[in-house]
Amino acid sequence: LSILLSLLVPGHATRSPDCGGILTPSGLSYFAEVSKPHAETILRQDLMASTVPDLLHVSPKPSRNQVNSVTVAELTLTLIPDAGLRLSIDVDLGITPAPSTTKVMRLSILSDLHVEMNPEGNLEMVTSACKTSLEEMQSTEEMESKSSSSDVEKDINVDKICLEVSKLLLLPNERLMSLTAQFPVTPSCQVQYLPLAAPMFSEQGITISLQTTFQVVGMSIPLPVSPVPFSMPEPATSSPSHLTLAFSEHFYTSLFFALEMAGAFNMTIPSPLTTATMAQKITQMGSLFQEDLPVTLQAVFRSTPRVVLEEGKAALKLFLTVHVGAGSPAFQNFLSVNVDMTAGLLLSVADTRMMISAAGIEEVELSLAASDVGPVPAALLEELFLPTVRAEVPAQMNVVLSEGIFLPHISSFTYTDVNVVIHKDYVLVPCNLKLQVRPG
Residue limits of the Lipid-binding serum glycoprotein C-terminal domain (predicted)? Predict the structure, then answer.
């Protein structure tokens, strides 16, 4: 298999998206909301640590400004179309300039952020501008001579906040990097989502286009070429969901192709027939097998399975050759039947995986491919094999598909309130984000 894959790989030069997502303004607000406690923790470490007097060299000024409380009053992220994001944070600092006094200063941080693609192909959030300002809110000082905010700025060094302002958000670069992790589909097959360019920023949200790649036994496989270039559908109205994921028809066909390449769909199907019961219908069977043996079917794909998406429904088209034989361990194949079948596909999302299952079989065609027992009429093929093939093929495929396929996602976040909407040629998955709080 690996030799075959290595021969095929050079043809895999074309890069075009087959899925992607739009993080909406409400998704951005949710990310800002869950970043607030994190920002408070970081600012507390930075600002309160910087004002602890050195134990050996006691500060000569007894009135040194000491930060004794840090509260993030507000943290917002705003979209700037065609540019990036604006991060705005208001922080209330409780400051003790002298032993018996406390005053509250408002620290405002304003920063512009954008997302770049680094040489390794990972997305990275970068600060493009940042400024801080400090003003006094209230004071318990009785004397008029208030220490100016510039004294406080000198003591607590607010400028250094701008040096690493993006770390006030909930680890955006670690999370962006986790987007390109490899996820297992089966033990020998992995999926990876690669960004093709930096995200686009518009009033609708942040749009990212991704290309799905699959590795089988550690080697990238060349996926079938998409007949239609895919681009993220424009959201018709402002979506109440945090995020809308989109998957092209080609994405699903690629998944089935990868599973087929990995051999996941090679099926051995037990049959209720024996060589003696078949000999009653096909007389030449008797001369091939003197003893009565159980009949087994081995199904292999003669062409890649194909997923077809129409408004409101998904179908899976399968093109199989079923080899009919008997004997174990030496399988003696005496009949081969071509089976073309169409199954309905059910799509849903659990956590960060898309669950896929082949539902009812909509149509099946059987035709004779090869025979060692003379001609077999189509009606007899159907009578002998149709009930078994109709029941067993989707059942065995569903065992392979039962784990689902990981969707593009970032670490620590899961998907909730999910809808799966099937359109012609693509699937939309509007959903909300939920931060999973890990114990400890």
Answer: 237-431
